[in-house]
């Protein structure tokens, strides 16, 4: 304590001296001490945080001109003087506090000195006593022991006395020092007495100024209030006028409505009469229909009974036949086995023979029937051709003649095939063609006729290619009655076309009536906006529905005019004119699309309306293939020579058209070579064997081929194709040969390269399918290997996709074949072994040494430790692992005690092995260059603004000259010449200092972005010395500086070219750190990070993987970024623990890796509630009165907390909503301990409990009061609710039950047994018999029940005691401040053994009074007899209320 006081005294003196210096420096006159004024101005610049409000006050005073005025001389009071006054007051307060502290220190020292002095005096007295006793004992010769004991006590007492005297001296010295310091402080207070008086005067003047300003502000506010009241009066007048107009308009509309209702009633009666007649007719028809149905049902029942009898007879007969067959088979099997024949084989051959005969018969029958059908169809088509020739007015087109001639030739060929007298070869060929045509027609829809003909023509080409000239006279035939569908289609299309032709001249000669009012915009809108037929197939029919809606403000009409010329032959329209359409009404139209050509089509539907024409666009697109790959750049990285690494890319076809693809390395693209030969076409053009194979395999499939839909003729000349077939075969052969040569060349190149393609190099990609393509990297030569190849497609409209592959081969003479060895799960004290294989490609033998870390040498061993690996061979070493119990201590750096996983690095040293030195070069912009660029940009912006001002100055001067002068009318001018020249001061536009431009600011970020965008290229060279040590570091201290020789120093030359980065961070002023700050655990915060592609090439962005169990996650997906485009990364932070998080995210491009640092901190919300408890009871309240209670939330967290308050009555019901109510109803009237969360509610529909505020935010360290209000609108004892306070992370602060009781009178009775459940239900109330009461008494009476159980144990009866409470509600709306109560008919109760205490009494408002009821069974009371008495209790206050209290008493042996 002494040392602390000694050390503290110099500090206190220094504090006092500092305060005095500040006081005297502040109190000196600025004129007398210029240096003091400068020091004070410096001090003023660094104003503490607690006086920052002075700056705002000073700014207000400068703007108002009243706070900074002096009372004597109307001059402005400077901000420095005001700050000086507050600093003086603060320093004087500190000095006063220092003085009080000194006084307390002196008082403490004196208090410490007083007990010390008392101890010294008492011990001196004890020493004198001991000395006297010693003298007495010395006189006695036999008391030597007592003398020694007294001397020892005397010595100990002297030592204590000495210590106490030393302590007294120290305390006296301390007291002297404290008194001296106190005197010095008092002297200092006397020195600043005058300064204190001056400060008080200044404070008084300051308060006067503040009062004057308050008065002026009050006057201004009064003026503003008067203006607002005047405006409100004008607004009220306008609203009154508008209300009068609305009332008049409403009266007029009511009169019109009455008139229209009278008219509508007349027609309504007629309509109702007509509806009744129709209903009677329908009822009659329904009765007749029901009778017919009943008759049909009866007949059906009879037929079902007959069928059941016949079915039963058939089933019995079938069972008998089956049993007979089984018996015959059994007998035959026994006979065959008796003869020594295999019965199973014989029976199987017999069944196969029967099945073959049955199939042969069915096939012959089907052939006969199909021949007849084909001949009938051919005759029908001949008749159709003849009728068409007669009906056609114009000569047919050449293609049509060629088509029919080719069809006729095909028909003759087919008839020759169908001739039963023709050779077998022709029969087989005809059967093949018929089957192929039938398969084509069966696999397509009825509308795809032209596509059938295309496939049929290809089939004919295939057949004619494989036949000799003598056999090629036959032409293909097709099956189906296509002409009937053609006629039906023409009939459907004819009305629309006829209507168009009919309406066209009408529309040309006349125009629709158009009103004089011009309405801009469309009169109708269509849904959909564009009729889109996507991925159509030639020959199929498609249907679309179009809804036209009138969006004009008038009654409109809609008429269909025409279809675009390019769509007229393919689209038909079914549209019925709807007539007049009101606003918002719509009509339907159906469009039928039947494509005949495989091309994209565009056009529109043209309509006419009352307001003008409009159109609806139509788009028709064919099937297309849209191939894409998931990765166009494959980087294998660095791999050892001799290893094989594979990567897989996915080829996706997002279109509806299948395509063939092939992969090659050719770099030139041309129309001839980019088209891929389809395998199906090649096989069809080169192999006649395929057709013969298909004949035998498709016999069974062609049994029902002729039952397909009709086929239309193809719109091209088949005969010309047959004539030109032979040159086409030669062309196909040459194409195949050229493609084979290209394939062989590509294959040779790929096989000779380190980067090769996998087994899948070509094939087909179906619609909306994908194919996995494998790329292999087998490095053979050290260095970088590059390969650019293309994926080409058979679709000529699809561009080839380039793929870039890169890989680096590293040549290491010795490497480990399996660098990672996994021993799986191991047990202690067991031996585990594995083999380490070392491979060498060196041309000489090398020495290999295996090293195990020191901590693992007791548990792991490699044999042999040293060895020689021969040239271009392998070396095997044996790994032995015996884990001991001390593994966790010996290898604590490699062993994870939580998971039990051991990861141990082992070193393989090779003599002559090279060491890899990694040098990282990261060029960056210098800080001073960025700041200079920022200054240059500011200077340029300044020059531009000055030029704009110079340009605009003459224009402004001319405008001022042109404006005529106006009289001032007593107003003061807005400005003067002096103030107008302030902006021309050169000091105001002074450029900032480079030191003021800090990293992370907006200017810094803009300058850095500009330099990076304008950066071209730079080149630098560095020389790095590499020191080679003479030995290895010791195991004990690896940080010791090793010896090295200058002769062994190597010099590494670094050539460092720097180029422009392709990516630039544009968000957060170019900062790569994304800080989420503090976030509550369980909450989620989203931030955005934007990058821009500043290169001239498109970039494919990829991201490194984030920790899947970490708090950071990427919300959006990555995409490619074009030149100049930006991409925003949306990142989320959702912490799960209370700690700090940091993670690195890499944005990867082929030429750059951008590293983003993600950091954030998870914190837990600490919110407490006061008062604590889970129940808020409002007690008894008068109905329609409001009472409130308050709870307080305190936020002890470091960040703001958002909260919300939920009431169960205002929340969504839970899955178990109402379960507690059912339990209460089933439990009965008594003994229920269940209380529902939501009880009785107000009749008005509003919640009886309300909370304010419902939600909000609490700042750190702040408190928030929550008010709970209870406002019932009718009497009930079942008001309840549940209040939950929940934070933003879904954590609950508290869950409290709210309860209250509402009464219609201020007097109430509390206690007793419940007569109903705690909810208002439909159950009847418990009725207790009582004497008849008058109507007035019945209305004012309330029933109550009290049960009493007297205990009977060992023949001794203990009286039963219950307690009721009579209360009075305190309310300002009642005149009575107290109430009284009394019991009636007490004598009757006493006869039954009941005692009441007190019988009568008074209750103050807001209080309760207890009434004790005691029941003592009288003598002769029978066991299990229930005593029931009604005791009237009358309470008086604002009204007289009678409680009919029913007392029920019984003796029980189980009662406590």
Structural class: alpha+beta
Q: Portion of residues in helices?
A: 25-40%
Span of the ends, CA to CA:
65 Å
Largest beta-sheet details: 6 strands, mixed
Number of strands: 58
Enumerate the strands of the largest sheet in spatial order, edge to edge or round the barrel. 51-50-58-57-53-55
β-strand amount:
25-35%
Give the overall form.
extended
Query: Which regions have little confidence, pLDDT < 50, spanning 5+ residues?
Result: 1-15, 26-51, 60-76, 393-411, 413-519, 667-752, 966-988, 1224-1233, 1321-1339
Radius of gyration: 54 Å
Task: Describe the fold and architecture.
- The chain is 39% helix and 27% strand.
- With 1456 residues, it is α+β, with helices and mostly antiparallel strands.
- It has a six-stranded mixed β-sheet with strand order 51-50-58-57-53-55. Strands 2-9-8-4-6 form a five-stranded mixed β-sheet. Strands 11-18-17-13-15 form a five-stranded mixed β-sheet.
- Helix 17 crosses helix 19 (1002-1014).
- The longest helix has 147 residues, at 193-339.
- The two termini are 65 Å apart.
Element layout with pairings:
Blueprint: H1 2-27, H2 34-45, H3 52-64, H4 79-139, H5 144-191, H6 193-339, H7 343-391, H8 398-418, H9 424-443, H10 449-466, H11 482-509, E1 524-527, E2 531-536, E3 542-550, E4 556-563, E5 571-574, E6 580-581, E7 586-593, E8 601-609, E9 612-622, E10 627-629, E11 633-640, E12 645-653, E13 659-664, H12 679-686, H13 689-697, H14 718-723, H15 725-752, E14 755-757, E15 762-765, E16 770-777, E17 783-793, E18 801-810, E19 814-816, E20 832-840, E21 846-852, E22 860-863, E23 866-869, E24 874-881, H16 887-890, E25 895-896, E26 901-902, E27 906-910, H17 927-962, H18 977-980, H19 1002-1014, E28 1017-1026, E29 1050-1059, E30 1063-1065, E31 1073-1080, E32 1085-1093, E33 1099-1100, E34 1102-1103, E35 1112-1114, E36 1120-1121, E37 1126-1133, E38 1140-1149, E39 1152-1163, E40 1167-1170, E41 1175-1182, E42 1187-1195, E43 1201-1207, H20 1219-1227, E44 1249-1252, E45 1255-1258, E46 1263-1270, E47 1276-1287, E48 1292-1303, E49 1307-1310, H21 1335-1340, E50 1341-1353, E51 1356-1358, E52 1360-1368, E53 1378-1383, H22 1386-1391, E54 1394-1397, E55 1400-1404, E56 1408-1415, E57 1427-1436, E58 1440-1452
Parallel strand pairs: 2-9, 11-18, 31-39, 41-48, 50-58
Antiparallel strand pairs: 1-3, 3-7, 4-6, 4-8, 5-7, 8-9, 10-12, 12-16, 13-15, 13-17, 14-16, 17-18, 19-20, 20-24, 21-23, 21-27, 22-24, 25-26, 28-29, 30-32, 32-37, 33-36, 34-38, 35-37, 38-39, 40-42, 42-46, 43-45, 43-47, 44-46, 47-48, 49-52, 50-51, 52-56, 53-55, 53-57, 54-56, 57-58
Helix pairs in contact: 1-4, 1-5, 4-5, 4-6, 7-8, 8-9, 9-10, 17-19
């Amino acid at each position: 304590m002494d040392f602390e006081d000694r050390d503290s005294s110099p500090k206190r003196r220094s504090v006092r001296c500092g305060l005095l210096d500040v006081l005297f420096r502040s109190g000196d006159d600025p004129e007398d001490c210029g240096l003091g004024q400068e020091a004070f101005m410096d001090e003023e610049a660094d104003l503490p945080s607690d006086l920052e409000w002075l700056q705002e006050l000073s700014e207000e005073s400068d703007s108002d001109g009243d706070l900074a005025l002096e009372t004597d001389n109307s001059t402005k009071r400077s901000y420095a003087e005001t700050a000086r006054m507050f600093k003086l007051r603060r320093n004087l307060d500190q000095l006063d506090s220092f003085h009080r502290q000194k006084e307390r220190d002196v008082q403490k020292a004196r208090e410490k000195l007083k007990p010390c002095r008392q101890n010294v005096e008492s011990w001196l007295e004890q020493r004198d006593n001991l000395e006297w006793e010693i003298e007495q004992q010395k006189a006695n010769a036999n008391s030597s022991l007592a003398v020694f004991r007294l001397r020892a006590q005397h010595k100990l007492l002297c030592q204590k006395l000495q210590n106490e005297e030393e302590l007294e001296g120290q305390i006296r010295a301390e007291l002297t020092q404290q008194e001296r310091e106190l005197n010095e402080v008092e002297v200092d207070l006397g020195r600043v007495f005058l300064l204190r008086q001056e400060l008080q005067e200044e404070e008084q003047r300051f308060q006067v100024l503040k009062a004057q300003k308050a008065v002026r502000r009050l006057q201004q506010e009064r003026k503003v209030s008067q203006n607002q009241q005047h405006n409100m009066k004008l607004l009220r007048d306008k609203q009154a006028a508008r209300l009068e107009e609305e009332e008049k308009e409403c009266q007029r509309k009511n009169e019109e409505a009455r008139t229209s209702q009278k008219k509508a009633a007349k027609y309504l009666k007629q309509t109702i009469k007509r509806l009744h007649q129709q209903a009677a007719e329908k009822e009659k028809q329904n009765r007749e229909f029901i009778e017919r149905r009943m008759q049909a049902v009866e007949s059906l029942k009879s037929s079902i009974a007959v069928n059941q009898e016949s079915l039963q007879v058939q089933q019995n007969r079938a069972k008998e036949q089956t049993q007979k067959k089984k018996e015959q088979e059994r007998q035959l099997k026994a006979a065959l086995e008796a003869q020594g024949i295999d019965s199973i084989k014989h029976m199987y051959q017999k069944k196969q023979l029967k099945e073959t005969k049955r199939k042969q018969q069915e096939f012959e029958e089907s052939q006969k029937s199909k021949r007849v059908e084909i001949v009938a169809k051919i005759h029908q088509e001949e008749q159709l051709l003849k009728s068409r020739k007669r009906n056609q007015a114009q000569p047919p087109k050449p293609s049509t003649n060629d088509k029919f001639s080719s069809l006729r030739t095909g028909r003759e060929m087919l008839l020759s095939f169908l001739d039963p007298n023709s050779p077998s070869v022709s029969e087989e060929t005809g059967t093949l063609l018929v089957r192929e045509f039938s398969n084509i027609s069966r696999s397509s829809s009825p509308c795809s006729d032209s596509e059938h003909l295309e496939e049929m023509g290809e089939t004919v080409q295939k057949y004619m290619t494989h036949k000799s000239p003598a056999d090629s006279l036959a032409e293909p035939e097709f099956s189906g009655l296509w002409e009937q569908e053609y006629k039906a289609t023409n009939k459907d299309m004819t009305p629309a076309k006829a209507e168009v032709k009919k309406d066209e001249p009408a529309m040309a000669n006349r125009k629709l009536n158009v009103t004089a009012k011009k309405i801009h915009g469309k009169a109708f809108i269509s849904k959909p906006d564009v009729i889109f037929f996507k991925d159509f197939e030639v020959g199929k029919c498609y249907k679309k529905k179009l809804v036209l809606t009138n969006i004009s403000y008038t009654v409109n009409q809609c008429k269909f005019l025409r279809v675009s010329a390019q769509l007229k032959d393919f689209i038909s329209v079914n549209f019925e004119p709807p007539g007049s359409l009101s606003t918002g009404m719509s009509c339907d139209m159906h469009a039928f699309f039947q494509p005949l050509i495989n091309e994209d089509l565009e056009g529109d539907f043209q309509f006419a309306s009352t307001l003008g024409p409009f159109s609806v666009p139509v788009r028709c697109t064919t099937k297309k293939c849209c191939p894409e790959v998931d990765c166009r750049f494959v980087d294998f990285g660095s791999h050892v020579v001799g290893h094989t690494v594979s990567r897989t890319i996915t080829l996706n076809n997002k279109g509806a058209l299948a395509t063939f693809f092939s992969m090659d390395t050719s770099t030139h693209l041309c129309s001839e070579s980019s088209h891929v030969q389809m395998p199906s076409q090649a096989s069809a053009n080169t192999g006649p064997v395929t057709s013969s194979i298909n004949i035998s395999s498709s016999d069974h499939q062609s049994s029902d081929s002729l039952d397909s839909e009709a086929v239309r003729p193809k719109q091209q000349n088949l005969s010309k194709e047959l004539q030109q077939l032979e040159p086409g075969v030669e062309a196909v052969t040459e194409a195949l040969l050229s493609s084979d040569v290209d394939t062989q060349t590509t294959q040779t190149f790929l096989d000779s390269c380190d980067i090769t393609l996998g087994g899948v190099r070509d094939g087909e990609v179906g619609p909306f399918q994908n194919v996995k393509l494998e790329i292999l990297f087998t490095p053979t030569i050290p260095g970088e290997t590059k390969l650019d190849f293309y994926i080409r497609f058979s679709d000529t409209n699809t561009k080839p996709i380039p793929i870039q592959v890169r890989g680096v081969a590293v040549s290491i003479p010795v490497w480990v074949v399996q660098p990672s060895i996994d021993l799986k799960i191991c047990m202690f004290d067991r031996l585990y072994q594995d083999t380490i294989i070392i491979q060498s490609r060196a041309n000489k033998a090398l020495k290999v040494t295996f090293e195990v870390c020191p901590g693992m040498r007791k548990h792991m061993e490699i044999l042999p430790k040293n060895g020689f690996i021969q040239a271009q061979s392998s070396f095997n070493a044996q790994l032995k692992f015996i884990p001991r119990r001390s593994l966790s201590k010996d290898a604590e750096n490699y062993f994870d005690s939580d998971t039990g996983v051991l990861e141990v690095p082992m070193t393989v040293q090779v003599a002559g092995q090279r060491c890899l030195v990694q040098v990282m070069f990261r060029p960056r912009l210098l800080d001073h260059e960025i700041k200079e660029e920022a200054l240059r940009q500011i200077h340029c912006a300044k020059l531009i603004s000055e030029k704009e001002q110079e340009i605009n100055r003459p224009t402004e001067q001319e405008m001022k000259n042109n404006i005529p002068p106006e009289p001032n009318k007593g107003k003061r001018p807005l400005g003067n010449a002096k103030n107008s020249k302030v902006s021309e001061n050169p000091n105001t536009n002074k450029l900032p200092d480079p030191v003021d431009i800090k990293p992370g600011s907006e200017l810094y970020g803009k300058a850095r972005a500009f330099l990076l965008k304008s950066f071209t290229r730079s080149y630098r060279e560095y020389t790095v010395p590499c020191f080679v040590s003479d030995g290895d570091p010791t195991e004990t201290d690896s940080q010791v500086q090793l010896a090295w020789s200058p002769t062994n120093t190597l010099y590494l030359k670094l050539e460092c070219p720097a180029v422009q980065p392709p990516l630039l961070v544009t968000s957060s002023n170019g900062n790569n750190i994304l800080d989420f700050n503090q976030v509550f655990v369980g909450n989620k915060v989203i931030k955005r990070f934007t990058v821009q592609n500043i290169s001239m090439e498109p970039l494919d962005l990829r991201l490194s993987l984030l920790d899947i169990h970490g708090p950071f996650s990427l919300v959006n997906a990555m995409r490619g970024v074009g030149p100049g485009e930006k991409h925003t990364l949306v990142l989320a932070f959702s912490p799960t623990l209370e700690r700090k998080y940091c993670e690195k995210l890499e944005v990867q491009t082929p030429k750059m890796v951008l590293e983003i640092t993600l950091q954030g901190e998870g914190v837990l919300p600490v919110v407490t509630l006061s008062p604590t408890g889970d129940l808020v009871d409002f007690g008894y309240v008068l109905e329609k009165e409001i009472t409130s209670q308050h709870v307080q939330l305190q936020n002890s967290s470091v960040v703001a907390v958002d909260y919300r308050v939920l009431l169960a009555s205002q929340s969504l019901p839970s899955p178990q909503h109402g379960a507690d109510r059912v339990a209460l109803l089933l439990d009965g009237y008594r003994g229920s301990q269940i209380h529902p969360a939501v009880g009785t509610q107000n009749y008005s529909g509003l919640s009886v409990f309300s909370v304010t505020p419902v939600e909000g935010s609490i700042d750190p360290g702040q408190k928030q009061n929550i008010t709970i209000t209870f406002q019932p609108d009718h009497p009930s004892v079942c008001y309840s609710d549940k209040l939950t306070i929940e934070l933003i992370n879904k954590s609950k602060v508290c869950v409290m039950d709210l309860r209250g009781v509402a009464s219609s009178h201020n007097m109430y009775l509390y206690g007793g047994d419940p007569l109903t459940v705690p909810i208002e239900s439909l159950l009847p109330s418990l009725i207790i018999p009582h004497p008849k009461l008058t109507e007035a008494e019945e209305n004012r009476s309330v029933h109550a029940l009290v049960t009493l159980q007297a205990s009977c144990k060992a023949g001794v009866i203990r009286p039963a005691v219950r307690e009721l409470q009579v209360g009075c509600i305190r309310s300002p709306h009642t005149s009575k401040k107290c109430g009284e109560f009394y019991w009636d008919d007490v004598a009757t109760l006493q006869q039954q053994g009941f005692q009441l205490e007190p019988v009568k009494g008074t209750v103050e408002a807001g209080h309760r009074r207890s009434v004790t009821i005691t029941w003592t069974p009288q003598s002769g009371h029978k066991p299990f007899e229930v005593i029931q008495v009604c005791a009237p209790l009358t309470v008086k206050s604002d009204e007289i209320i009678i409680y009919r209290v029913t007392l029920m008493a019984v003796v029980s042996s189980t009662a406590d």
